[in-house]
Amino acid sequence: MKVPVQILDLSSGAFVEAGLFDEVTLEHFVETQRDWRPMVVEATKSMIRRGVDPMLQPRHWHWNWENKVPQLQQFGLTFYGIEYAGQLQGLMKVDLAKHAARVTTQAGEGLAYIDYLEVAPWNLREITSELGQNQRFGVVGMNLYAAAVKLSLEAGFDGRVGLHSLPHPKTEQFYQKTCRMMPLQRDPAKENLLYLETTPELADIFLTEAKR
Amino acid sequence: MDMTFSQDWLRKVAKEEEDVRFSVGGWVSELEEQFGPELTGTMAKTEGQATQGELSETVLDEADPKHVQSGNVFGQFLNLARRERGLSVQALAQTIGMNPYDLLRLEDGKELPELRIISRVAKVFDVPPRRLAQAAGVVIPDKTTALAALAFAASSSTKPLEPEQREALHEFIRALAAI
Fold it and tell me: Using CB atoms, which residue from A26, A141, A147 is nearest to B116?
């Protein structure tokens, strides 16, 4: 599957057509290592030099990844990537098998759980500004999130999506306000990260707003 | 999947996401789970714009030569597993997204497989990609995988699939899966 998505070229202010695809291969992981990681490392080094609180440094974004059991072909997992101009702009892993809704009225219903979602470092202002560069593309992450909502609908989960937010107030607010997710609990099993979820009604509101 | 959204809404989102860490988890582990820290360790040394092909070569160059001279393990595996499934070269090539000529060159051991091809082949034949990559000599294998690969290489040939070849193939798959 490859479908067009619009991402915002922040240098020109114009939308460009990128491709959302689900045939993620090892090569894409290699690309994240080769092209993404050095930039994140450089930004982290710069923050350390400036004495930025370790909790605010990018390396802490990769919490707990050692415990993941990722397999491209694992049952119930779907991977999405967004590519533009031959470059990977974002990647996401969605688990349709192992998680159930936690909202009381939906308890036990299936949902699409976003296990990983990452945009290229040049699309994150915190990284680019640290390195004195300009952020390149906007709405890459949102397109991936929207794809998870659509996937949930296609899978018969009525748009239910769940995720654990990074411990960052603006990010937690963004999921609530813009993604229309409901904050449920600080999850002790996930380092007290905030767990958020959509209901079918909230997913419908989100998609309706996205069409306006 | 219709991913058409209003540009007004997207612009609004772009404004709202400016200082947001739109990121969950990381990807280093994905690669390590599949191909092991020895690969990511090597990759850390390949700075710059190395292509996938160059990357594979770098990994191979750094492997102990005895590990990659254990015969055409990957090609023989490909050949036997394909025939056992009753797949033509063309059918398998189409499934894993490469042209039949290149697939034949892989089966003949005339080319080193790229990691993404190993990953797709592993998916088709339901074997662990990391172990298959090790057996193929693309990344440094652990001792058990190296021994399994050597045993497989020694027992295989390109002749028609005989019962003992079938058994050797199955034994190799079991060895990869069990490690």
Answer: A26
